[in-house]
Description:
single chain; alpha/beta; Rossmann fold; seven-stranded parallel β-sheet
Amino acid sequence: MAARRRRWLEYALTSIGSLTVLLGCLGHALTARLTRILGRDDDCWVFGARRGSGFVDNSRYLFEYVAEERPEVRAVWLSTDPETVATVRERGYEAYHARSLRGRWLTLRSGCVVVTHGLRDVSLALTGGAFVANLWHGVPLKTIGFDAELGEQSWLRRRAHRFVAARNDLVVSPSPMAVHQMATGLGVPRDRVRVLPYPRYDPLVVPEAVEGGTVDADAHERLAELRAEGRLVFYVPTFREEGADLGERVDFAALDGLLCEQDAHLVVKPHPYERLDRATDLDRVTVLDAVDDLSAVLPFADVLLTDYSSAFVDHLLLDRPQVFYAPDLDEYRAERGFYYDYESLVPGPVAPDDGELVTSLEEALTEDPDASRRRALRETFLTDTGVRPSTVVFAAIRAGLDDGVVT
């Protein structure tokens, strides 16, 4: 009986989600017609991220750049989270609740919409006729969108998402090797995927340009204190299951012993939907669960420890050792799938169990044996523009607006 109720609940939630997308598509089509008559203001840009839930990722860094360096453009952050709106305002920027009258009006009037996941970061229904810049939120190592779970949805839901995907006028890929994957996974024409650096690379490439720009000053202070005591290893795992405890996947006690020997410290950055409950008795393990923006703190990582997260691509810009812990590689490959051959791509040892993880991490802290491999991947995988990434992305969006081509 419980299993049947659970199936019905899942079906109901799926149906509601499909209906919401369909209504959003209809609203988008109507506002597109309306704004062809009324017009939009190309000097007003609205920004959002992660379904409106936070002030993070590529949208955040481009927003800060535009607000601080491009006075000719009115930059507005929209969010469905009141705390996020308050945080952005406290930092001196313009922000509104996405569903407030002011937020809805600005969405209808803005000439450009900048998002990290999709139009629902701001509003699907009210963005018709605007230039849509989807900056995305990572290099697709594992399959995404239509190449993953979305491809298994109902025909109607797939059609609705195809409609939404076609509204993207510009999609950013930081790597020429990921253009095809971005196009097929997100369902956008390949010519709309531009090879541009992610704005969230700003603190990694030109840290002086964004000095003091972190949302969580307390976290920065804590990390600075830890780094003064020794090197920092950042563990940034891929999301697996909501509510999961990372302590059930990793032997943190064994790592704690190694870190004591190497005078290093492990900083664990769980996914927002996961946790680590077993760090209180460990001397060299700190949980960084209050920080939502990895780019702001990644420069503190002397060594990156991850599994299938594209955070390793960002970390390449720092030219520091990386270790990969993948005890469920075969299972993950069978269930989710990769665009690349995982073992050949990642620029560091792949540890299948806790014992090899300790060994690989010790080598990374003492020898850095994969430095040449890491640098070769950086040269072939990433495009170096030589300037602040946000300036490049801003110029591309400005050029798209000036061309006047909006889908």
